[in-house]
Amino acid sequence: MKLYESLAAEVEGQVARGVLLEGERLPSVRQASQRRKLSISTVLRAYSLLESRGVIESRPQSGFFVRARPRVSPRAAEPAPALTLSSEVDVSRLVLSTLRTIRTQGAAPLGSPYPDPAAFPAARISRYANAIARSRPVSVLDDLPPGNPQLIRQIARRYMEHGVAVDPAEIIVTVGATEAINLCLQAVARPGDTIAVESPTFYAMLHAIERMGMRALEVPTNRRTGIDVDALRTILASQRVAAVMVMPNFQNPLGFLMPDGRKRELVALLAEHGIPAIENCVYDELYYGDSHPCPLKTWDTRGLVLHCASFSKSLTSNYRIGWALAGRYAAQVEKLKFLNTLSTPSLPQLAIADYLQHDGFDRHLRQVRKGYAQRARMMAAAVLRFFPAGTRVSEPQGGYVLWVELAGGVDAMRLYARALEHGITVGPGHMFSARGSWTHCIRLNYSYPWTQATEDALRTLGRLVAELA
Amino acid sequence: MKLYESLAAEVEGQVARGVLLEGERLPSVRQASQRRKLSISTVLRAYSLLESRGVIESRPQSGFFVRARPRVSPRAAEPAPALTLSSEVDVSRLVLSTLRTIRTQGAAPLGSPYPDPAAFPAARISRYANAIARSRPVSVLDDLPPGNPQLIRQIARRYMEHGVAVDPAEIIVTVGATEAINLCLQAVARPGDTIAVESPTFYAMLHAIERMGMRALEVPTNRRTGIDVDALRTILASQRVAAVMVMPNFQNPLGFLMPDGRKRELVALLAEHGIPAIENCVYDELYYGDSHPCPLKTWDTRGLVLHCASFSKSLTSNYRIGWALAGRYAAQVEKLKFLNTLSTPSLPQLAIADYLQHDGFDRHLRQVRKGYAQRARMMAAAVLRFFPAGTRVSEPQGGYVLWVELAGGVDAMRLYARALEHGITVGPGHMFSARGSWTHCIRLNYSYPWTQATEDALRTLGRLVAELA
């Protein structure tokens, strides 16, 4: 292929891939010649060839522009991913595929794990960010691990207000709770180790275990009171477990609030064995009851509880700011943070610190909680009304997801696939186990405003379940 | 200890740790009683005790406030970390300690690896972010790995303009180049593997190798032309190397630009052996010459080059948005990204995409490059003038760091410690090797405006070197 032909083919390829869109200007002949070290005449010949093929057009005094009809972006054009399930469950692939169908198909977001972003005070937080960005340069040096000191102080204050005395020195700011969970797990266990988890398990825990090449041991979990401490005691008596990962408050997907007595018992059991607990507390601020729930951290006197949380569910997901209270592992987690992503971005940390100090986080939360608590009841009632008899639903005490056990052993992946044809997504139970449990369950998101469309979607789902039974 | 005493001790501890600052209000008696499930009288007794100790004071109709003199924040109060070097170099600890002294001591930033943030168009980018945050809710679902489609298109366009045809499908947006490098390395090699690197090596590469439990093999590197391809060829003939990590353009710390012929040769050699190359191209936009340098990716026909870059050095470090062009490993890197940090924050991706599409990135870069090129000469001249005879300096072709080989075998850590006493930091050569090479070299940052203080600091450094020689 001659030089001009190869340049023409390259440009045509970039148009086909959506890198260059209709009406966009190509680099000028002079620029292209300089940057590619080609002669002016070679570039001109390439552009003429593209013109003759109808890919670009020249406009007098302006240059060359893409003429081709707009291609849909390559991402959007991807076919919906095939959602078959191999016998060996690759949870992360399943989860990512499921999330993508929500994104790419504009389906009703019942399958989404994320809260409705319209409820976040995004504009207010952005105003703080903007004021900072306009007033002074922000250096990465100000926010090296463990993180921005102002934000760390605000986080510690919030725990104090809820009655948990946290040493600011054990707080490490992270990229969402996901990074916090990963770093904590890496700090306390090694590849090949066994990690005890709830069942069903929030899949982020399974991802962390998968990422590190560890093994998940699923412990029986009560729908109302959480992980079975007695069952765990029996397990610990007979086999080595490197760590326990739980969501004591408003577990995803079950929504339970572990009673304080149980939490104390769990912390005591683990302290006795010297086993660290990683608790994921991202929903703690979204309680429906009278007061903020206590994390396991409340009873941790030995620094064995690694507590992970984030602002992404309660305040804003625009920046994905999370943190770990890493107890006796704080120095190790801090170092792993530095190795993993160097530092958490500065401006978002500063903006959130300013918001927490000066704005109405509690007011925002009161409003959100009220809406979620109300919709929890509406969603449960609608499911029981539209789904076949024998359907069971959870009774979430916080958060914004409902767990539904389908009647008649209907496979959730089959329901998922059928629902998708109607533009509806659900969270298949398959995502919540590494050993293929919970295949007859789905998780539904009720964080979005309740509309006729929500009700229609639930009615459709109910009909599909009946057909599949 | 009685309940009220323990509450009082806890509050006093939070004041001492700087969680509560002078003049800040304590939770009201009613709040504290509800949240801690203590009686009103217990809280009142605790607060009275604190009042009698002079820690807090009550203000009529307002509540209780911290009275104690302001404590310096616990972070700021940390003593300067001891910077001794064990025989087995723990590069990441050394680097983090060094960076912290820059942050905490307000020293002249000659030791900083980051560009002067005052040169970034932070306010302009923030304006785009603000406009987005005010206009619509942004969902995590829009920006799942590989990343925001608009930003991915803008990144691909930029490569196209520089003459590199990139398939947008191989771009994965990450938390800075650090995450990109980590994920790429994890995708191509396993713990225990040997990774060939330049010598001196940019320490971020060593961190990635350390994080994965791999071994770094330091290959001779020419100060002007980069990694010695012939030496590498000899190594590959006799031992297994899982990957090669290089910075072909404006390497940190040497500043060289690998000639295109050498790059082609390197890509061909690795293709012949089927060995992937990870290239760190964070400084590519900061060239002093006529045109944008070519990355190794330019000659990669087999998808074996994993190219990592970021906006943090060229546009803004406020958000830490980086990316990988992961070639044939794109699917694997995308999955690792999902496992590592779930997704890169949305709002920053959208804001940068808007800036790239509508604003003056090239204008900004022209100005920055001109300043860096000029200061590169000024810094080199000043070092040669103030440092003892026999000092050698690099000739950076881009970026913003100068590499200085101290005369008389002066140990850079000793210079570092002495300089710190004068409020000056330098980048000790020890950071650039896992086997303790380059201990007589330092790296100096010249991205900041040149002032009398810069010249004074260099004069002081020169005097200290002479004293230590």
From TrEMBL, chains A, B:
Pfam families: Aminotran_1_2, GntR. One of its GO terms (molecular function) is DNA binding. The keyword DNA-binding applies. Signal peptide: none annotated. SUPFAM superfamilies: PLP-dependent transferases, Winged helix' DNA-binding domain. Residues 1-69 form the HTH gntR-type domain. Keywords: Aminotransferase, DNA-binding, Pyridoxal phosphate, Transcription, Transcription regulation, Transferase. CDD domains: AAT_like (cd00609), WHTH_GntR (cd07377). The keyword Transcription applies. InterPro entries: Aminotransferase_I/II_large, HTH_trans_reg/aminotransferase, PyrdxlP-dep_Trfase, PyrdxlP-dep_Trfase_major, PyrdxlP-dep_Trfase_small, Tscrpt_reg_HTH_GntR, WH-like_DNA-bd_sf, WH_DNA-bd_sf. In the C-terminal section; belongs to the class-I pyridoxal-phosphate-dependent aminotransferase family. This is Aminotransferase class I/II-fold pyridoxal phosphate-dependent enzyme.
